[in-house]
Structures are given as C-alpha cells and as structure tokens.
Design goal:
The complex is a heterodimer of chains A (223) and B (221). Chain A has 223 residues and is mostly helical. Helix content of chain A is 75%, strand content 0%. Chain A contains nine helices and no strands. Chain B has 221 residues and is mostly helical. Chain B contains nine helices and no strands. Chain B starts with a helix and ends in an 8-residue tail after the last helix. The chains are: A mainly alpha (223), B mainly alpha (221). At the A-B interface, α2, α3, α6, α7 and α8 of A face α3, α4, α7, α8 and α9 of B.
C-alpha cells in the first residue's frame, strides 16, 4: 500500500511519506491529545492553587501568556538540543501552550462553584479530597471542558508546525512533503483530514462532557 | 554544547552583521510582513466587529469564525496557497491575514457587547447619535478587550510570519529553515531566539498601548 511510488487511492501514501495515512492520524492524535491531557494534569493543581491564593493568579496568567506568545517553531527548534528530533520535542511545547488556555479555564471553573454549595458539602462532613472530587470538579466541569476543547483543537492544528523539524507534525507532514515533491493533492488530503479530525475531536469531547454531567441535560430542558 | 554557545557563535558571525542575510534586513522583512498582514486584518475585522457588537447581531457567525480560525493549520494553508497559486508575497499574506481576523472579530465583538447597558442608555439619553455613541462610549469602554484581540492577532501573525521562509520568503524564519537544511544549528538557534524576542516585544508594545490608551476608570478591577 504505502510502498507504491505512484499512489493511486487518495489515502494511499506515496513511499516518501514513510507512514500510512492511519499511522499519521495515530501520531497526530497521540501527540496533540496527549499534550492536552498532560496540560490538564498540570493545570488542575495550578488552577486550584490560584483560586485559593488569588494574589498569585495575575502573575501566573502573565507567565502562561508569555510562554504562549513564544512562536512554536522557535520552541521546537530550541528543544532539539535537549530532546533531539523526536515526538517529545513537539509534545513539550504543545503541553506548555495548552496551559495558557487551561489554567484560566480551571480557575473560572472553580470560581463558578457557589460558596454555599461548598459550605453544604463541609456541613455534610465531606473531607477536602471528597469535596473536590464529588462537588467542586463536577460543577466546574462545563467551564473546564470548554477550555479543554479549545486546547485540544489548537494543539491539533499547532502540531503541524512540527513537520518543519523533521516528520513530527502528524498529518502536517503532508504539507511540507507535498510541497517538496510537488504533490498538491497530498497537501489537500492533509489539510482536509486535519480539519475533519478537529471537528470530530470537538464533537467527541462534547459527548464526553454530556456523559460526565448527566444533570446538565435535565437542567437544560427545565430552562 | 549548550544554547549560549550557539547563540554566541550566531551573533559573532559577520555574515549576520551586515548585507543581504543580516539580522537587520531580516528584522525589517519580518516586521514588514507582520505589519501589512495585521493592518489588513484590522481593516477587515475591526469595522465588522464594531458593527456586529453595536447592533448585537451575528453572535453565532462570529463563534463559528472563531472555531474555524482555531482549527485551521496556518502552515497547511500557507503551503497549499503557495503550491496552488504560486510563490508570491501577496499569496503568502493571505494566511497571515486570515489568522489575524478571528481574534480581532471575537474580542472586539465580545467587548462591545459587554459594555454596561446603563452607560449606553445614558449616552442615548444625552442625545448622542449612534456614531457618537460608538466612538465616545462603546469603543473606549471596550478598549481593553479590543486591544487584547489585536494583541492575540499580532502575536499569531508574528509567529506565523516565520513560516514565510518555508515558501521562499525572508524574515527571521529564513535562519531557522536555512539552518535546519544546512545542519547549522547555531543559525537555527539564532533565528528562534530572534523570533521569540520579537514576539515578546510585540507583547510589550500592546501592554504599553493598554497602559496609554485605556481610560484609568476602567482599570479598577
């Protein structure tokens, strides 16, 4: 399939791509969704800390904004010296970028929890961890998931810049390979697949959100 | 060995001091691409967003533009347009402009929508015409968000102008792309640091603009 020099089907990759179409999609999803997940794992404690100590929030927000404003291509190439030309080199900057979206998302989410709900949980004898997991997080979830969706979609699209440091851009590899080998159809395939994948991930994450917040459905029907 | 060694090597190299490949030439190119793209994006998006925010229409259309803008890979668009329409600077400008439009639209629209309705009513009560209302009340009150949108657009454009080098043009991206091809890592590092610095300078410019232009009355938060 991928060994043919002249590709026949739209999704049959020519040999210079060195990966099947499904392989590219797999790398794409692994790295960009993995980075979003890693960003979430980092952003949750940072956000929690910022909502507990409101004074450090502006400085934290400033820091993640400064990181976010460093162009991805610059971060990728600077990291080559440390992590080599590898998926890690793309993964780390993508994770850092998601923080600029996820940290405010977590803080806004936690702030959306009414204080009397927390008091009620305390009054019912909930411990810190139990209150966090069963009360705060679920109520913060809609705001949080909106940020997660934005972070996932931007990571999917940003990752394509990884193709400039070698073939680490997932479907984005097709852009530069298409340009190099004068195969415009390859660029089209990459661009359209990436857009479809982004929309698909967005819909999937909306589904996850609905599954995690079953009460939101009944609330919406009430008004 | 480490990044500072590469940086010293890059900045000591006379090839980047003067002439065709000098840092100064590349800086001017980079700023030129970015400024032209930003100005075109502003000219398109700002009036539209002020109109839609003032009339309170087009919420859905603007949120769709925001989603599409976020999902669209700029490298893909840049390469596709260059491959389909040819290597010309005006073609390279298209993705940069398209990249700048969504944040300007989104922030300006949201900013004008969020202006205190009491202030708008008071202005109407004073007998202001719609034009006066927009110019003297809505734009000044929405300015922090308008500037935040312009900042987001400018930073995206400065970052992506680096990719103009992929399709044969200049700017700081030239060092990164050429360095990668020539296995000259000092050049790559130099380019990357210059682009990062330019982005941070852009961030500072907008922070200054915010300090200078936004009414102090709005900065109580």
């Amino acid at each position: 399939m991928s060994g043919a020099l002249v590709h026949t089907g739209v999704f049959d990759m020519p040999s210079y791509v060195q990966s099947s179409f499904l392989g590219l999609i797999r790398t794409q999803l692994e790295v960009s969704l993995g980075a979003t997940l890693a960003g979430l794992v980092i952003a949750l404690p940072i956000g929690q800390l910022c909502s507990r100590l409101p004074r450090i929030y502006p400085a934290t927000l400033g820091l993640v904004t400064i990181i976010y404003s460093i162009p991805s291509i610059a971060l990728f190439v600077l990291l080559i010296d440390y992590t080599g030309e590898s998926e890690t080199t793309v993964f780390i900057p993508l994770t850092l970028y998601t923080l600029a979206i996820l940290v405010p998302g977590v803080v806004d989410g936690i702030r959306s929890v009414p204080p009397n709900v927390l008091d009620a949980a305390d009054g019912m004898g909930y411990g810190r961890m139990r209150r966090y997991l069963t009360v705060e997080l679920p109520i913060a979830l809609p705001t949080l998931m909106a940020a997660v969706r934005v972070a996932a979609v931007s990571s999917l699209s940003l990752m394509s810049i990884g193709s400039t440091i070698g073939n680490y851009g997932g479907l984005g590899d097709l852009f530069l390979l298409g340009l190099k080998f004068f195969d415009n159809s390859l660029i089209w395939v990459g661009l359209i697949s990436l857009l479809v994948l982004s929309v698909f991930c967005d819909i999937l994450l909306r589904g996850v959100q609905r599954l995690l917040t079953p009460w939101a459905r009944s609330l919406r029907s009430v008004g | 060995m480490n990044l500072f060694t590469y940086l010293r090597q890059f900045f000591d190299d006379p090839a980047y001091r003067s002439g065709y490949d000098s840092i100064w030439t590349r800086l001017v190119e980079h700023c030129e691409y970015s400024a032209v793209a930003l100005l075109i994006a502003i000219a398109i998006a700002l009036p539209l967003a002020i109109l839609s925010g003032h009339t309170g229409r087009g919420d859905n259309a603007i949120s769709i533009v925001a989603v599409v803008g976020r999902a669209l890979p700029s490298l893909g668009l840049l390469v596709l347009l260059a491959a389909e329409l040819g290597l010309s600077l005006s073609v390279t400008m298209i993705p940069l402009v398209l990249l700048g439009i969504p944040p300007i639209l989104l922030y300006t629209h949201a900013g004008i929508r969020a202006v205190d309705p009491a202030a708008v009513d008071a202005a109407r009560g004073l007998g202001m015409t719609p034009w006066q209302l927009v110019r003297q009340v809505e734009i000044p009150a929405a300015l922090p968000l308008i500037l935040a949108g312009l900042r987001a657009a400018a930073i995206q454009i400065v970052a992506t102008a680096t990719l103009a080098a992929v399709v044969s043009f200049g700017g700081f991206g030239r060092y990164i792309i050429d360095g990668l091809y020539q296995y000259d890592y000092a050049q790559v590092v130099g380019g990357a640091v210059l682009v990062a610095l330019l982005s941070l300078v852009t961030l500072c410019v907008f922070w200054l603009l915010d300090r200078l232009l936004v009414s102090p009355g709005l900065r109580t938060r």
